[in-house]
Automatic annotation (TrEMBL):
It is found in: Secreted, Extracellular space, Apoplast. Belongs to the plant dirigent protein family. One of its GO terms (cellular component) is apoplast. Signal peptide: none annotated. It comes from Populus deltoides (Eastern poplar). The keyword Secreted applies. It comes from the Eukaryota. Keywords: Apoplast, Secreted. Dirigent proteins impart stereoselectivity on the phenoxy radical-coupling reaction, yielding optically active lignans from two molecules of coniferyl alcohol in the biosynthesis of lignans, flavonolignans, and alkaloids and thus plays a central role in plant secondary metabolism. Homodimer. Its main location: secreted. The keyword Secreted applies. GO terms for biological process: phenylpropanoid biosynthetic process. This is Dirigent protein.
Amino acid sequence: MELTGPLKSTFKANIFQRAKKVACMMRCRIILCTAVSLALLTVLLLALISPVPHDKNQSDNSTRPRPRPWLALSLYIQQPQISSSDVQPAVRSEAGAFIFHRRLTEGLENTSRVIGKAQGFIIPIEHFAYSGFNIIYLTFDTPDYSGSLSVQAKHVEHKDREELTVVGGTGSFAFARGLAVFAQTDPQPTDVGGTYHVKLQLQLRFPDRSHTNIPG
């Protein structure tokens, strides 16, 4: 049946209104889907691009310089053997200078493995307490260590046990600092012929972690 007149106009108006509502609803759905998609994409991009947060304490620890490790060494300064061509006895001059050149060994026995030598020139007089001569040099030559230590002897009191200061070093002991404890194992009437047990507590600036402590 064909509509004519006012009915036809009303029918067309209803169809137009319905089409307009459908188009509006579709537009709203498209806008909503687009907004949701953009939000999800933004979250993913932020998760991928944003740096991983670091713990403040962890970052402080990473920038803080690490403490230098301590190295413990134990060795013996053997008493001079006049019969040996490599070892000279200690010599004391009239002015009181104490000159010595002795062997460093790994153990107490005189036949223990030689690991270096000890040399020094000490003037045990108060006026020379801060003299550059009052240094004991411990030189090492082993598979683990090659170098020397400088031990300051400005406050030597000639006791059975002396605590001296390590003020430097070379080679494996470059820029070393620490403490050197000298203990006489067989006290003698004079200070020129004893065997000394030396315990070193060292802090190395450039430690080699492949090195091991010399036991004792």
